[in-house]
Design a protein that fits this description.
This protein is α/β, with parallel strands linked by helices and 825 residues long. Helix content is 38%, strand content 12%. It is built from 29 helices and 24 strands. The chain has a 7-stranded mixed beta sheet with strand order 14-13-15-16-18-17-22, sandwiched between helices. Strands 4-3-5-6-10-9 form a 6-stranded parallel beta sheet, with helices on both faces. A 5-stranded mixed beta sheet has the order 19-21-20-23-24, with helices on both faces. α3 packs antiparallel against α15, α3 crosses α16 and α6 runs parallel beside α8. It is globular, with a radius of gyration of 30 Å. The mean pLDDT is 96.
């Protein structure tokens, strides 16, 4: 879309051909002796690599024994959670981590115990002892350190740090309070931020988009280090992974972004290719790429510097990372690594391996790197077999001590719901106010007042009426202006803020909310994304969990379906699963359509409102929109922010004085009383507020009834106190929104009112919603969406007879309600 890039027919129609370069496959051929002679490793490093691999193997072997036999090395114990083990993949994990430090971020999969431990061990060896001790003392108030301090007689800080990491991981897997996040993440969601270990992810391919967000955070905030996305070969059947890879290679990083941030993302897609996605064999059965590394050639002219490497040789992995990290530092990322490995056990401990032959497993066990790498070290004279036997004994003793401690409920207790029933409840939202997550001066290209949109808004009337007459559409400060102002303000306050989505830059967003921002905001902070909703939302999750503030935009609420996992499993859950260690300062803007039929005009407020961990907003007036978006952008929680396309042009009609010029907040849960009344309470969500206001006028003029209208811009959380006070006064309540009546979030509110205000109600709460159909074309809006006449129909039929009223629809007739329910409509 940028005018600087002309899309000309002479260029596009020119004949030619696409060429490719060869992709290396298992090219590393050096021996330990050659590496030693080249002084690429010291003997101590050679041995550390083996010992780290041995710890990883014994860790997974212990879990295998515990899950299968409820015992390990004489310790009877068990845990109910999952065990997706990487037994056999240790060389790949240790090789990857060897060159990384705490500034490098790793994201994992459901099978990432080894990656967590290996990355931690690498960080331990690179950090000074005083920093290590500070980390251990300060993490969760020293809770884990107190457990491991007496594990052995050593006073070596690095030894203590090893014990700390191994125990903390095991305790987390055992769901103990002394785990890295109180046991609330468990096996598939463990991580340790102080060493740059970001969450592993239970959803296959889930780390594809989130690691992309981590790389964006590094790039957009000029941070040191790279990001590693650890996913398996089976994840290449998942759309979000492909979306993330395509997003990661966007041309704009190298062609359009400002000079100081131009260049590819510092990101490695590390595909741990063990040949199977559960029981499906990826090469030869469920995929068509033959060799996984081939896919890099289809994504970018660099072919993502793709390479297949032997993950059964830790030195081959280290060699590849040494070369690829240099590419990333030069700004030519991202990189794709096809890391050949094999799991010697099943997908999980319940997997009987019915899909593969014993001979295959034995063949891979025959080249087990725990054995072959040890033999190579002995052959090269690095150490004798006796030294390895002693190390192995030490490793078994270490894991035995860890399992004993993690199994002891006196030492490693579970969180107690009996003592603290609200222990998880408090973690659902962080509810903090952090005006800026940035550490430097915000990057802008001009002064705020230089933006033409700011100048245009300055000449507008901030209330919809002047001298008793409506202000014209062109001169009134409208709903989209009310959204623009807090976004612009936050750009100048928080250097970490970025905003992206489909057509948000030059176009100004599909509905012109971000129009004018490109005049003062550089590309790296406001950019167009591919049409990749899963990657948009998932990367925003990763960006936020790494410490930045982000606004992600989906053009239509209907497109939430394309990002369901990213909204419902990623965005919503990480704060609580991390025991509050992670924050999620993310606002997802979505618009509710009105003209484009069944797939572009649905009010899906009920979906995110149903999911614990998400705040949900749907302002209906400009005053609400500005105040609530300001609140969201100052906060630390994930927000799904709905906007009605019916309202973008509308001015503030209700708030006295109009929309203030300065910054202000509307508190979460607050409702907006639109008008006072004593005869009936009408609660509204979204654009239906204006239909309710029209219905209230009729009630007053024709029937002498005064309706109290309360709009609910904050749906989660929601303060019921003013609602209950109104219902207690009127004794009657009707709820209306444009969402289909069946499954509407209003039903939940109505149920709560029915329970909380039972003694005050003269009639049951009544919900007015859209028909339970597909949304028909715009020409039939009056037949599908609630109208003021429907509100009168519902009152007459269900709450209070209106003399002489004739129903316009049958929605509220009991016989018709029963028929429609039986028909499923």
């Amino acid at each position: 879309m940028p005018k600087s890039q002309m899309y000309m027919p002479a260029d596009q129609r020119k004949p030619g051909k696409i060429t490719f370069v060869d992709i290396p496959v298992n090219a590393y051929k050096k021996t330990v002796k050659q590496e030693k002679e080249a002084k690429n490793f010291t003997d101590e490093e050679f041995l550390r690599i083996w010992r780290d691999m041995a710890i990883l193997r014994e860790f997974e072997a212990a879990l295998t024994s515990i899950k299968n036999q409820a015992s390990y090395n004489g310790i009877d114990t068990s845990y109910a959670g999952p065990a997706h083990l990487s037994l056999g993949q240790e060389a790949a994990a240790v090789g990857q981590a060897f060159l990384l430090d705490k500034n490098d971020f790793t994201f994992g999969s459901h099978r990432s115990h080894s990656e967590i431990l290996a990355k931690a061990f690498s960080a331990i060896h690179k950090l000074p002892d005083d920093e290590l001790m500070t980390v251990m003392k300060e993490y969760l108030g020293g809770r884990i350190l107190k457990v491991v301090e007496g594990m052995d007689s050593s006073t070596d800080v690095k030894s203590t740090a090893y014990n700390f990491i191994i125990y903390g991981t095991m305790a987390e897997i055992f769901a103990r309070e002394t785990g890295f996040h109180l046991g609330l993440g468990g096996s598939m969601h463990a991580f340790f931020l102080p060493f740059g270990i970001y969450p592993n992810n239970a959803i296959v391919g889930g780390s594809g988009p989130t690691s992309l967000g981590g790389a964006l955070y590094k790039k957009c905030n000029d941070q040191k280090g790279v990001v590693i996305c650890n996913i398996g070969d089976g994840s290449l059947g998942c759309g979000p992974v492909w979306e993330a890879m395509n997003f990661a290679v966007m041309d704009q990083f190298k062609q359009l972004w400002e000079e100081n941030r131009r260049g590819g993302l510092p990101l490695v897609f590390n595909i741990n290719n063990n040949g199977y996605g559960m029981g499906g064999q990826t090469r030869g059965e469920t995929m068509g790429y033959d060799m996984l590394a081939r896919i890099g050639a289809g994504l970018s002219p660099t072919q993502m510097h793709a390479e297949r490497i032997d993950g059964y040789n830790p030195l081959a992995v280290i060699d590849a990372y040494r070369r690829k990290l240099d590419i990333l530092k030069k700004g030519d990322g991202p990189v794709l690594l096809d890391v050949l490995t094999y799991r010697l056990v099943g997908h999980s401990t319940s997997d009987a391996n019915a899909y593969r032959e014993k001979d295959e497993i034995d063949a891979w066990a025959g080249c087990d790197p725990i054995v072959t790498y040890r033999e190579a070290l002995v052959k090269a004279g690095v150490a004798k077999n006796k030294a390895f036997d002693e190390m192995q004994k030490g490793v078994v003793d270490l894991l035995t001590s860890v399992v004993k401690l993690a199994s002891d409920e006196q030492v490693s207790p579970y969180i107690s719901f009996a003592k603290d029933p609200a222990v998880v409840e408090r973690l659902m939202f962080s509810n903090e106010t952090v005006p800026s997550f940035g550490t430097g001066k915000p990057s802008v290209t001009g002064k705020k007042e230089d933006c033409s949109r700011v100048k245009q808004i300055a000449g507008k009337e901030r209330f919809a009426f002047k001298d008793g007459k409506p202000v014209s559409k062109m001169k009134v400060f409208n709903y989209r202006d009310a959204l623009f102002e807090p976004i612009l303000d936050k750009y100048y306050e928080d250097s970490s803020l970025i905003c992206y989505g489909e057509d948000v830059r030059d176009w100004g967003g599909a509905f012109a909310v971000t129009r004018g921002l490109p005049e003062v905001i550089p590309y790296s902070r406001l950019f167009n994304s591919p049409i990749s909703e899963a990657a948009i939302v998932g990367s925003a999750v990763g960006y936020a969990m790494c410490g930045g503030r982000v606004i992600a935009e989906l053009m239509y609420a209907d497109f939430m379906g394309r990002a369901g996992d990213e909204i419902f499993n990623q965005m919503a859950k990480w704060q609580a699963m991390s025991a509050g260690i992670l924050k999620m300062p993310m606002v997802l803007r979505v618009s509710v359509g009105s003209k484009y039929g069944a797939q572009h005009s649905q009010d899906w407020v009920a979906l995110p409102a149903h999911i614990p961990g998400l705040k949900v907003a749907f302002p209906a007036t400009p005053w609400e929109a500005k105040g609530l978006l300001t609140k969201a952008l100052n906060g630390t929680d994930p927000v799904v922010f709905f906007e009605s396309q019916r309202l973008y042009d509308i001015g503030e009609q209700f708030h006295e004085g109009g929309v203030p010029e300065g910054s202000y907040e509307i508190e979460w849960g607050a409702v907006n009383k639109i008008r006072d009344g004593a005869d009936i309470t009408i609660l509204t969500v979204g654009a239906t507020l204006y239909k309710a206001a029209a219905a209230a006028d009729i009630l007053q003029e024709k029937y002498g009834l005064a309706a109290e209208i309360i709009n609910m811009p904050s749906l989660v959380p929601l303060d019921y106190a003013p609602i209950m006070a109104s219902v207690k006064k009127t004794g009657k309540v009707l709820l209306a929104s444009d969402a289909c009546a069946r499954g509407s979030f209003l039903n939940d509110i109505a149920r709560n009112i029915g329970e909380l205000c039972f003694d005050d109600l003269d009639a049951p709460p009544v919900v007015v919603g859209a028909q339970n159909w597909i949304t028909p074309p715009f020409e039939f809006d009056n037949e599908f969406f609630p109208q003021e006449s429907w509100i009168l129909d519902a009152i007459n039929e269900k709450i209070l007879p209106l003399p002489g009223h004739v129903a316009t629809v049958n929605n509220f007739n009991p016989v018709e309600q029963l028929r429609r329910a039986a028909e499923g409509v």
